[in-house]
Amino acid sequence: MKIAVLVKEVPDAAVQKRIDPSSGRLDRSGEKNLNPYDTHAIEAAMQIREGGAVEVDEIVAVTMGPESAVRALHKAVSLGADRSVHLTDPALAGSDVAATGYALAQVLRRESPDLVLLGQQSDDGECYTIGAVVAEYLGQPSLTQVIKLDIAGDELTCERQAEYGYDTVNVKLPAVISVGDAINEPRYPSLKAIMGAKKKPLDTLATGDVDIDASKVGAEGSHVACGDFKAPPSKSAGTIIEDEGDTDDTVGKIIAWLDERKLLA
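User: That's the sequence. What structure does it adopt?
Assistant: Structure tokens below.
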């Protein structure tokens, strides 16, 4: 069996998210990291391999993104992937979800995995839909929010979170499965794995290498148009009223502050 895990480079959780006023899109500058939701997908692939129900010949991490996204691939390899594939091309810049799903599907056609795993969402866009888009382009079944996964032969038995409980669904391979963060607890990479990640095979591909139709990707090939997004107005500094020993005076200041804003009945 061959498993492909889709991963993404996202702004680090400590970086404050803001809209780039020049593009109307999320500003992805600053420190970046591997999308934390994708670590659950890598762990799920590792547990399938270690579970022994099927023989996993290879786990491949796949991403699409700028040059810096290679660091997310190194992290994915340190967590257990055998090699990685990086689709990067200036023509892809500005791709929306549908265009990104199309481009990733073209890479997966080249890899021809038996199972595609990915995290339920990205930590920046949080659209939850890339798995379904990829599956549509590949013509394969797709499940989302999967929190338990058992494999036997060419069939998966998946338990997925639904709005009012859990669904158990059987699906034939090949398939595209988005896993929820409740499916497992991702392992920490060892120092040896971190040091060795850069030595693992990395294929860098451009759009022409996987027959991507340039008219279907990038800002021009995307159907989503960014509106007049603006950062919310800055909040004014709060008022701090300290009790300096005269409690009556302090209470008076609080009442006056509330009354000024018509917050008293």
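Residues 190 and 198 are 14 Å apart (CA to CA).
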